[in-house]
């Protein structure tokens, strides 16, 4: 992975920043319970103490990189059964990573360093923390031809103002599969993973947004690795009770609020917009995946999109994909960040000249549901046996879908 970029020179010493909308949820009872019952309630206090011991920006940056990487590895190890569980929360849970990270970013955002921390330096620290704690700097693809190389991505929980208890099975999948070797008909395959934020700004290709993270996060993470990858799958939570292999991705943001309660309605912003296509397509072997017996949830080849036809003015749903010259209004995966990560990853694949040789595309998982009797966010428990079973089954089925895809592309 390319190294983290050096920061620009520090500016004036700014006042501590207000926590973001995402960070402000951290003090609610549910996030605190999740941290306590996983043992991750020590992450932010230990990180704060380490930061307070630093006496210069280079020292602070070293602490941020070390502790961000340590959090990612600790979350992966917990999910994969290494080391202590830290509490009674099931090991497969992705939420401790999410809430612990927010405790760390909130501390960096508010930190009044005695050596003086410029705005650009603070943004660089936040960017480094985001990337390292998401596994984005930890993709270690093996060399040689004896093992095939797979990249899988997931997302943070989202719609947390609707239900702050929410877990994201795609993030749980990333933690469960990172660094694992799976057997396929053509031999072993190594899986490397990363998790992405549910924030428009981070995807935008600009820098130093409100989140403090550099934009263009998908391209920054995947560009160094796709030329050496044998298959990639961006994964997110989609529809109730079903998996979808999304055939077509569209260049449109539909405006649904992100985790910072920010909306964006616009064409997906990318580098070199003059050559930007309206649509990109999966190169995953969707027919073989749909036909495979991968788990208890049905898997569909989703071909539907929403477009403004050539010469038209109003959006039209097309069950069989876009028509020539149309303008995107939703891909098969919608018009939110699930669609956008798929669009960006497949556009990057094609701009790298890998369309005909690299299978890749988007997998939508079923919505992760709580058990009957535990559906009310106001009174419900943070977990239940059916919730855990659903998440474990979804994770196992994503793994089986990856195997099916690899078996279809020897």
TrEMBL record:
<feature type="region of interest" description="Disordered">
    <location>
        <begin position="1"/>
        <end position="31"/>
    </location>
</feature>
<feature type="compositionally biased region" description="Low complexity">
    <location>
        <begin position="1"/>
        <end position="21"/>
    </location>
</feature>
<feature type="compositionally biased region" description="Basic and acidic residues">
    <location>
        <begin position="22"/>
        <end position="31"/>
    </location>
</feature>
<feature type="region of interest" description="Disordered">
    <location>
        <begin position="310"/>
        <end position="332"/>
    </location>
</feature>
<dbReference type="InterPro" id="IPR036440">
    <property type="entry name" value="Peptidase_C15-like_sf"/>
</dbReference>
<protein>
    <submittedName>
        <fullName>Pyroglutamyl peptidase</fullName>
    </submittedName>
</protein>
